[in-house]
Design a protein that fits this description.
The chain has 520 residues and is an alpha/beta fold. 31% of the residues lie in helices and 24% in strands. It is built from 14 helices and 25 strands. The strands form 6 sheets. It has a 6-stranded mixed β-sheet with strand order 3-18-19-21-23-22, covered by helices on one side. Strands 17-16-15-14-24-25 form a 6-stranded mixed β-sheet. Strand 18 and strand 19 form a beta hairpin.
């Protein structure tokens, strides 16, 4: 009877694989039949679907399934089952973010498998950095309805390369250029794209919303004559929602983490996300552990959350009120030991909440270049002995919460963007201009490398493409919370000053709560 059942199961396996354009070796079929025979009929077909789905996402040399393919598929499916249920929060290092490049032939993004990024890359990597940023924005702009629509649409714009203008001798009107805004000579601005460089006149320019800095990409509209583009209007490149962008990556995991495929549409994780409707992430920036009043306010904070511990506390530096010279490391270590003793007073938080530690600009002795490494284990040993789950994160870093993607960075980006803007906006709502700038540039740091240095070959770790669900920027400026392009961009503000403000995020509803601990 068992032999007959296995024979029928074997026939079903061969038939189902054949329907999906696969064939299977005899020993592989024997192995799969023996593995699935212990399951009931419903579970067999569930596992067969998982295995076939795994094969369809792989780049197999031939549509022939070997035994090792079956073993790998079962292992990957089993691993995903465990991961999805047991660890819904994953912190991803900036140095582990996957890299992709755009294929002009296939019109999609493909993983970079031919090179391993180096901390100190070749000189050619610096040029590739800006070229890759341009490619992302250019292909996205061409898909926008303003540039890709019906031919006789009067609202249609035609994007011109710089080299086109360099070949003409007469005046041209209604010119639109997408390029990098640079200042190659003192007081003279230029637009640059992969085809060339052209000087621009910004004396009569009308600026749209956003912060326009050197080394950011802009859309410039105007008229061209005698080697100069007279810009009448300047705006940021058009935005694109995440769902549209992901089409051009396929099922690849663009965000990072152990999963080979994107978790954005994972039904199991979506269910967990909605089921945990009270789950929350608490964000604090500039938590000075050497200031008694800050520790007192942290004590009030933990007391308030002791009955309903958040899924995670995200603490961003700086963790000292100032640099302590040669005693800096010992003072920092003492500060985290004090924090651990403080948290241990509330066992519910110490056992159930994850503590994610992101270093600030003065916390680490590493070079002032993004991305920065995490703090050494020895510095936070006092916190680790008191708290069950402590994660040391890089700056910037990423958090995968179920299906949601969160990007965090501790850097005074608002200050730097405002300080280096060629035109300061009239509106006082700087948060909205800042959020639009980051999302439209698809990058955390659209600044000159001398203003905010970046490791050339790890620039992809700072990209915001596809657009995440939440971007958290720890800046010393006043706190704000803005939603743009279906993405929340927030600044918790410095916890050490003012009313001790912080932000709380509820993933189930995607809501941001503005919180503070006022003086009694």
């Amino acid at each position: 009877m068992m032999a007959n059942n296995n024979k029928e199961l074997r026939k079903s396996i061969v038939s189902i694989l054949k329907l999906n354009s696969f064939s299977i070796r005899g020993n592989a079929c024997d192995y799969l039949t023996e593995t699935l025979s212990a399951l009931d009929e419903k579970e067999r077909f569930i596992w067969l679907d998982k295995i076939i789905d795994h094969f369809q996402k792989q780049s197999l040399d031939a549509p022939v399934i070997e035994k090792e393919h079956i073993e790998a598929a079962i292992l990957e499916s089993s691993k995903n089952e465990i991961d999805e249920e047991d660890d819904i929060i994953r912190v991803i290092s900036a140095f582990d973010v996957p890299q992709f490049e755009y294929s002009l032939e296939r019109k999609k993004f493909l993983p970079c498998k031919h090179k391993t990024p180096e901390l100190y890359g070749k000189s050619s990597s610096k040029g590739s950095l800006f070229k890759d940023r341009y490619t992302i924005i250019y292909q996205r702009t061409l898909r926008n309805r303003l540039f890709h629509g019906v031919g006789d649409d009067e609202g249609q714009f035609k994007l011109r390369p710089v080299e086109y203008l360099l070949t003409v001798t007469s005046k041209i009107t209604d010119v639109v250029i997408l390029g990098l805004l640079t200042q190659l000579k003192e007081g003279r601005y230029y637009l640059e794209d992969p085809s060339g460089i052209i000087q621009v006149d910004l004396s009569n320019t009308t600026y749209h919303d956003g912060l326009f800095t050197e080394c950011c990409f802009v859309l410039a509209e105007g008229w061209y004559q005698d080697g100069v583009l007279h810009v009448q209007a300047m705006g940021l490149p058009p935005r694109e929602i995440s769902e549209t962008s992901r089409v051009y990556f396929g099922s690849e995991n663009t965000f990072g983490g152990p999963s080979k495929t994107s978790l954005k549409n994972n039904e199991r994780l979506k269910g967990l996300e909605l089921h945990k409707e009270d789950a929350m992430l608490v964000f604090l920036s500039d938590v000075w552990l050497d200031v008694p009043k800050v520790l007192d306010k942290l004590s009030q904070l933990f007391l308030g959350y002791s009955t309903c511990p958040p899924a995670a506390f995200v603490l961003m530096g700086n963790f000292q009120s100032g640099h302590k010279g040669f005693q800096h490391w010992s003072c920092l270590k003492d500060g985290f030991k004090t924090l651990g003793e403080l948290v241990s007073q509330w066992p519910s938080i110490a056992q159930n909440s994850k503590f994610i530690i992101i270093p600030g600009p003065t916390d680490s002795q590493a070079a002032n270049i993004l991305p920065r490494p995490e703090l050494p284990e020895t510095i936070v040993s006092g916190l680790k002995t008191s708290v069950k789950d402590v994660v040391l994160a890089t700056n910037p870093c990423r958090i995968q919460y179920c299906t949601q993607e969160i990007v965090l960075v501790r850097e005074d980006l608002v200050t730097k963007l405002c300080r280096n803007s060629v035109h300061f906006p009239d509106m006082k709502d700087i948060g909205s201009h800042f959020a639009k700038t980051l999302i439209c540039q698809a990058h955390l740091v659209p600044l000159c490398l001398n203003v905010c240095p970046v490791y050339w070959e790890f620039d992809s770790a700072l990209r915001l493409y596809p657009c995440p669900d939440l971007v958290v920027v720890g800046d010393q400026q006043k706190e704000f919370s803005v939603k743009y392009n279906q993405c929340h961009v927030i600044n918790p503000g410095p916890f050490c000053k003012g009313n001790f403000a912080f932000k709380v995020y509820y993933p189930a509803t995607k809501e941001i709560e503005d919180c503070q601990i006022p003086d009694e």
